[in-house]
Amino acid sequence: MSELFAQLQRRDRSGEDCVSENGICPDWIVDNLDRYVDPFWDHVYLTLTSVAIGFAIAFGLALLAHRRRWLVAPIVQVTGILYTLPSVAVFFLLLPLTGRGNTTAIIALVAYSLLILFRNVIAGFDNVPAESKDAGRGMGLTENQLLWRVELPLALPEIMAGLRIAATTTVGLAALAFLAGAGGLGAALFADINFRSNVLVAGGLAVLLAVALDLMILAFQWAITPWLRAAT
Amino acid sequence: MSATLAFLGDFGDAFDYIFNSRESEAGGARVGGSELLPLLWTHLKVTGVAMAIAIAIALPVGLALGHSGRGAFATISVSNVGRAVPSIALIAFFVAFFPSTPEFWNVAVALALLAIPPILTNAYVGVRQVSRDAVDAARGMGMSSIQIVRSVELPLALPLIFGGIKTSTVNVIATATIAPLVGVLTLGDPIISGTVHGRAGQIGASIVVAALAVFAELGLSAVQRAVTPTGVKLERGASARAPRLGTLKRRIQTVP
Amino acid sequence: MTTANTAQTEGPSASHEAASLEFREATKQYPGADRPAVDGLTLEVPAGEICVLVGPSGCGKTTAMRMVNRMLDITRGDILVAGRSVRDRDEAELRRHVGYVIQQVGLFPHRTISENIATVPKLLGWDKRRIAARVEELLDLIGLPADMGRRYPAQLSGGQRQRVGVARALAADPPVMLMDEPFGAIDPINRERLQNEFLRLQAELRKTIVFVTHDIDEAIKMGDRIAVLQQGGVLAQYAPPAELLMFPANPFVEDFVGADRALKRLALQRVRDVDLWTAPLVRAGEPVSEARAKLASSEVPYALLVDDDDRPLGWLSDRALTGERVSAELMSTPEPMVELDDVLRDALSDLLAHQVQYGPVLDHQGRVVGVLSIELLADAIAEPPEGE
Question: How many whole angstroms separate alpha carbon A198 and alpha carbon A205?
């Protein structure tokens, strides 16, 4: 942690009244915006990678459990434990195995998102109207065709809802990734935790990122579900 | 091979740290073992205060909104925004913008704000999903709004409400871990101050925090089961996978 | 009746004639149950006919139907479509050649109407142009405008969705159709319309259909042959509707058909089937002597005033027939007026509703061609219907 404390630099605040008063200084913000660029993109990388991997695993598990219902309960138990473990604790429990850096952070973030994603994919499948499945089978769709052509499209709203939650919570958690030695907006924020402008920008960027991801997934969902649009 | 030994060694050392106090890395102070107790106490205190504030605010509001049926949009927005704000940003915000307030209260309020969305959402949905027929019948029998909430909606919403409280509590315990970053010494202190407590301290404290979270989850799950009215348990068993919340569930996600 | 017919050829280019269907001791036994759900069902459905499976809930009618396309496995016995056992065929492939309509329709919410209808043709590999033409043809057949094809199921009414469900089942022109209470979820007014439209379709297409319902009236209306099933999937009687009504095989069938089965038989005949009474048609200004002569030779006690085109204006009072010429002094209006194509049951109900004993019968141009009376209807109830 010594490196972290070493990062605790007192920024050069000389000459600016606003800054030395510890106010919210638009000038300072504009001048120093570029220092947030790298942390921002680090943050994006951490979030997107974690959510993508988490989704891939959760989706795979859901496909497995879809036909073998008895698997649902055990999977929920295991992912539930991973969800309960505080991410910070997980960072350090992984230390001996994966060391410091992005990998540790990503593993912890992935573990956290599994429960939400798995639960939502399963719920999506459960919400497919039974008569559509019966009619589909009766018309001669094989089980695989039924899954990919009927069940998945109709499960999409629930799946997307899970993705949105996972994405926004991962953005929030990724702000702690700096404790594991990864980058991200958390590092920028913590570097000058008492300076209001810094807190505002770093925190604000994180919130904006979360909202942006949320809206993008929502827009994507809207785009690929024309039948839901038609109903409104 | 040596990595595995080192791995085992780290964990072994960590367990030792938990149970036996030792000299700090830099020397001059005692850490670990019973020295952890004050940290645990602070952790529990700040969690307790934050949860008390959160429940006091979120529960009545959630029940009221759920009963009247209004405010779905507001509830969704609160829960969405609540998820988007990083915990450290919120804590830092309070510390930076209210430097004269003691850190403990800054942290407690920040944690309370983090804890509100799940409780609010679950209370709202919990009340909404109470059978409309039961509420209608109650109204028809002449119960006032408050009586309806108290004797019909609240008991039937308890399982979901406790689910929300459970999730919030676990979240707060997890977030309280980073409170030492602003000077409130919880169990996160050994994790963050690695130079003082050493690797054993970091891992050991992580184990303790994780155990605390799991313990809270299990304990509150048991409470959640205990407050589920027997009639509801039977009903649940009968209609095992029926998604009873329908389109409402799609827009407002309850927490596990 | 045409007997067992063309074996079903796979492939999009075959023209499909209706196939015969046969249940041969078909039995469905669930493990652990002490009685079978369907017990040794044996019956033959000639090609092009509607066979209605009817009975109280739990009698196994839906189970029996779902055994035909192997949505449920056959425990013992067999089912033959066009002479070929359904057990021999691959499940998915079999189902693509059997039309399947269920009560809740089960349209795919995420597909347009056109896409829904095109489901099986696509599975069979038809080319795009052929599919598009077929979809257009079917939309026309079920009476929906062509641009409806672009809409989604959520945008259609319940009755429209039901019709799309039928069109979807007909899309690949299957030789056999299975229909499980297809009109059950519709309100009674629209249900009658849908039933009539479907019968009109069937007159054109002549598919072999297994139709399941719990409503005996629907069974009588829709079925060429009716199979009444008792609890436990036992066949109580398999006969055309008239025979069922006149000669119920056992007390169960008698009870199920209902105490008013004589009246139900009136649903099987139309006004044109009855020997109507001659209508004493009289015009204003006619010589009274002529009018009285017509009245004497008719069983109807009152004269009917008509215009120059023989359209009814009303019943004449006795006073109108005094003096030299007939005056247009009406005793009552001509209602209810009955048409040749009306079903006797509806005609009886009209007469009773207006509290009259006689009603003029009109042809398609609205001209009076006879008089129907309660007496004639009573005779019709008592006698066996013509042609049986």
Answer: 10
Burial B169-199 (b: 16+ CB within 10 A, else e): bbbbbbbbbbbbbbebbbbbbbbbbbebbbb
Do chains B and A meet with 3 or more Cβ pairs nearer than 8 Å? yes
Q: Sheet holding C304-306: strands in order across?
A: C281-282, C304-306, C312-316, C330-332
Helices within chain C (DSSP H only): 61-68, 91-95, 113-117, 119-124, 128-141, 158-170, 188-205, 216-222, 241-246, 251-257, 261-265, 288-296, 344-354, 374-382
Query: How is domain A35-231 classified at the architecture level of CATH?
Result: Orthogonal Bundle (1.10)
Instruction: Please state the pTM of the whole predicted model.
Output: 0.76
Q: How far apart are CA C105 and CA C95, in angstroms?
A: 16
Confidence (pLDDT) at B256: 59
For residue A211, the tally of other CB atoms under 10 A from its CB is 15
Judged by CB atoms closer than 8 Å, whether chains meet at B80 and A203 is answered as no
Query: Which A residues in the span 170-209 are in contact with B, Cβ-Cβ below 8 Å?
Result: 171-176, 179, 185-186, 189-190, 193-196, 199-200, 202-203, 206-207
Q: How many CA atoms lie within 13 A of B177 on its CB side?
A: 30
Q: Does B199 touch chain A (CB under 8 A)?
A: yes
Question: Per mean pLDDT, which range of B121-130, B239-248, C313-322, C334-343 is the poorest?
Answer: B239-248
CB contact under 8 A, B206 and A214: no
- In words, the CATH class of domain B33-237+245-251 is mainly alpha
Of A91, A211, A55, nearest to B174 (Cα)? A91
pLDDT tens string B38-65: 899 999 999 999 999 999 999 999 988 9
* CA–CA separation, C277 and C271 (whole Å): 12
Alpha carbons A199 and A215: distance in angstroms, whole number: 24
Which of B13, B88, B209, B214 best probes binding to A when mutated, by most A CB atoms within 10 angstroms?
B88
> Which residues in chain A touch residue B195, judged by CB atoms under 8 angstroms apart?
1-2, 5
Closest approach of chain A CAs to the CA of C223, in angstroms?
23
Mean of all residue pLDDT scores within chain B: 82
**Domain residue spans in chain A?**
35-231
Q: What is the pLDDT of residues B210-220, one digit of tens each?
A: 999 999 999 99
What ranges do the domains of chain B cover? 33-237+245-251
Domains and CATH numbers, chain C: 21-97+174-265 (3.40.50.300), 271-380 (3.10.580.10)
